[in-house]
């Protein structure tokens, strides 16, 4: 591919070392994943706490403790589910604003705003006196997640050398799993305290403060600096984060792409009307859709509720959640180490198969052993289900969890990168809202059949990856169109010669 008078040899990446600056910037930015994960993990445990239900949802508390209440319907309440899902409605709006803000002012200020919103939300939840304050805090948290999820994966992808981009980008997902694990520990410790739910929700301030302080020490990305006309500063940062003097080739490539980018006055119009942008738009958006319909947030949001539905006591259900989330974090470490060796597609297809088998098996066990009323039959069944959920979670954690964020951050051209990634994040938020808002109601009505539904979705998404997704491992993100989309048998017709 020619860039001015410079020729980039096919198959070669730009000169770069793995520098301390890149590692530290990636780690600090990825703390946004810690914020996101903590909030995912904390809500399910809090909604299962009797003290929380007595303060805000006394009718759900009464229903939970009725002896003859339908096992599948103990927590079926739209307002209770709104506590979990309201965050994602706010996240959709916030990620849209962040897509413009990030392009106009840079990735770094957007990350700072994310931490401030999240900190305000944690303070509101900690001090909540009524349902309005509680939901208001969730909306601020949603704004923080919208700004963070829109910007942080792009930030890491833009500063990382192509050779190490996969592993560094997965730090975001790894810290999501650490946040979920930390939340399950906190819920276990606070579940027996008076007003323990306040400490659980207020704990979200810790990762927010870490990100707020750390974000003042990260570098702005060279692509963002050059896009905003700060060429010399962009060169300076590029030289520092690459650890080599020979950065002219990469600088020229970024400069060439940004000259095209700055001519695009309406990136969303460009994204939706230009044929060449349809392949990454379809793949990036559908990956996020499928990621949520793996059924993972059923486990992440409602694991304590799910284990209580199967007859476990409150403490036993929280311990089971800690075990599950520990597996989640460990499997993500494996993904970080291996994704740049084996590629994206193989992990995605294997994960889809693993999740299909486990969810179908869980559905069969619940169908056979969990009746509408009374405890689950068979003392070993809850343990078997816990093991199956751990196997399921590991399959998600080394495939669709991290790669659902990584691949969309790699595939868009710079001129529509913020707009395209917004579509991916918005799809994530919409699907997360739908599942968060309606899962407990769907569990009440469809019972074990819900697991067969998610198992079927995993089959569909595995086939989608096999047929439509190009392999992105090791390709500089600004060359993805030349070296992947234009040569893909399903997508090359969208590009002119």
Explain what you see.
With 497 residues, this protein is mostly helical. 74% of the residues lie in helices and 1% in strands. It has helices spanning 20-47, 50-56, 58-64, 78-105, 107-126, 131-159, 165-190, 196-202, 205-214, 222-227, 231-242, 248-262, 267-273, 278-292, 296-309, 314-342, 344-369, 381-397, 400-411, 417-446, 449-468, 480-483; strands at 2-3, 6-7. The protein has a two-stranded antiparallel ribbon with strand order 1-2. Helix 1 packs antiparallel against helix 9 (205-214), helix 1 (20-47) packs parallel to helix 15 (296-309) and helix 17 (344-369) packs antiparallel against helix 21. The protein is globular. The two termini are 13 Å apart.
Spell out the key features of this protein.
single chain; 497 residues; mainly alpha; Growth Hormone, Chain: A; two-stranded antiparallel sheet; 22 helices; 74% helix; globular; disordered N terminus
CATH topology (level 3) name: Growth Hormone, Chain: A
Kindly report the average pLDDT value.
84
How much helix is in the residues? Answer: over 70%
What is the domain total for the residues?
1
Order of helices and strands: EEHHHHHHHHHHHHHHHHHHHHHH
Ends: how far apart? 13 Å
Shape: globular
Q: Any idea what the CATH superfamily is called?
A: MFS general substrate transporter like domains
């Amino acid at each position: 591919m020619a860039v001015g008078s410079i020729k980039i040899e096919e198959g070669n990446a730009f000169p770069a070392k793995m520098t301390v600056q890149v590692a530290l910037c990636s780690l600090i930015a990825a703390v946004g994943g810690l914020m996101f994960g903590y909030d995912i993990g904390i809500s399910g445990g809090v909604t299962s706490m009797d003290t929380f239900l007595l303060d805000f949802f006394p009718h759900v508390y009464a229903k939970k403790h009725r002896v003859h209440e339908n096992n599948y319907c103990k927590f079926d309440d739209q307002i209770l589910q709104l506590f979990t899902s309201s965050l994602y409605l706010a996240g959709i709006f916030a990620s849209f604003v962040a897509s413009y803000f990030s392009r106009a002012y840079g990735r770094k200020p957007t990350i700072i705003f994310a931490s401030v919103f999240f900190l305000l939300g944690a303070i509101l939840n900690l001090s909540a006196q009524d349902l309005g304050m509680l939901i208001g805090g969730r909306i601020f948290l949603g704004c923080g997640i919208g700004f963070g999820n829109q910007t942080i994966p792009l930030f890491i992808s833009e500063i990382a050398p192509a050779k190490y981009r996969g592993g560094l980008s997965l730090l975001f997902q790894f810290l999501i799993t650490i946040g979920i694990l930390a939340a399950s520990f906190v819920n276990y410790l606070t579940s027996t305290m008076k007003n323990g739910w306040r400490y659980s929700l207020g704990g979200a301030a810790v990762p927010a403060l870490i990100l707020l302080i750390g974000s003042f020490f990260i570098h702005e990305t060279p692509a963002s600096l050059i896009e905003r006309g700060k060429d010399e500063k962009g060169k300076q940062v590029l030289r520092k984060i690459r650890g080599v003097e020979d950065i002219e080739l990469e600088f020229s490539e970024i400069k060439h792409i940004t000259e095209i980018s700055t001519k695009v006055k309406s990136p969303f119009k460009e994204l939706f009307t230009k044929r060449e942008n349809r392949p990454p738009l379809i793949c990036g958006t559908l990956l996020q859709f499928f990621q949520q319909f793996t059924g993972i947030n059923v486990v992440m949001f409602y694991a304590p509720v799910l284990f209580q539905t199967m007859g476990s006591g409150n403490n036993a259900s929280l311990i089971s959640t800690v075990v599950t989330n520990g597996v989640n974090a460990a499997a993500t470490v494996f993904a970080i180490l291996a994704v740049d060796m084996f590629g994206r597609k193989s992990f995605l297809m294997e994960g889809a198969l693993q999740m299909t088998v486990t969810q179908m098996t869980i559905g069969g066990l619940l169908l056979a052993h969990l009746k509408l009323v009374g405890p689950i039959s068979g003392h070993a069944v809850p343990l078997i289900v816990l093991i199956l959920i751990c196997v399921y979670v590991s399959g998600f954690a080394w495939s669709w969890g991290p790669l659902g964020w990584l691949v969309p951050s790699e595939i868009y051209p710079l001129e529509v990168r913020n707009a395209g990634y917004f579509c991916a994040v918005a799809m994530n938020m919409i699907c997360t809202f739908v599942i968060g808002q309606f899962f407990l109601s769907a569990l009440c009505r469809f019972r074990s059949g819900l697991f067969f539904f998610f198992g079927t979705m995993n089959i569909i998404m595995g086939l989608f990856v096999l047929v439509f997704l190009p392999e992105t491992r090791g390709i500089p993100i600004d060359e993805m169109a030349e070296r992947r989309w234009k040569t893909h048998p399903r997508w090359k017709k969208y590009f002119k010669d």
